Each structure stands twice: as structure tokens, then as C-alpha cells.
């Protein structure tokens, strides 16, 4: 019975580690998305200014 309990505890620890790893991956992905969204917005603004100057 103790072996089953130990196995369950190790599986529980492994699952917590997996969840944390996945959360970190999602955070990095969201940060990357925010960066590229900002770059797109900045580029679109610059295009608008150039269009105004070019008439």
C-alpha cells in the first residue's frame, strides 16, 4: 500500500511540474504575441504618416 501511495505522490509532483512548464510556455507565447501586435500597430501608424506625406 505504501508503494501505491508513493507512486501517486510522484505522479502528483510530475503533474504539477508539467502544469508549471505549460503555464510558462503560454506566458512566453502571450508575451511574444503582444510584442508582434505592438510592432504591427507601430508599422501601420508609420505607413499612415508616410501616406499623408506622399499625398
How would you describe this structure to a colleague?
- This protein is mainly alpha-helical and 55 residues long.
- 96% of the residues lie in helices and 0% in strands.
- The protein has 1 helix and no strands.
- The relative contact order is 0.06.
N-to-C SSE string, H for helix and E for strand = H
Sheet having the most strands: none
Overall radius of gyration: 24 Å
Number of strands: 0
Mean of pLDDT: 96
Number of distinct helices: 1
Instruction: Give helix % range.
Output: over 70%
Poorly predicted ranges (pLDDT <50, ≥5 residues)? none
Give the N-to-C terminal Cα separation: 81 Å
Structural class: mainly alpha
Give the helix/strand layout.
Elements: H1 2-54
What brief labels describe this structure?
55 residues
How would you sum up this structure in a few lines?
By secondary structure, the chain is an all-alpha fold.
Amino acid at each position: 500500500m505504501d508503494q501505491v501511495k508513493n507512486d501517486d505522490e510522484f505522479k502528483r509532483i510530475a503533474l504539477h511540474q508539467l502544469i508549471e512548464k505549460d503555464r510558462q510556455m503560454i506566458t512566453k507565447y502571450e508575451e511574444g504575441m503582444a510584442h508582434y501586435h505592438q510592432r504591427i500597430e507601430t508599422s501601420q501608424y508609420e505607413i499612415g504618416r508616410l501616406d499623408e506625406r506622399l499625398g
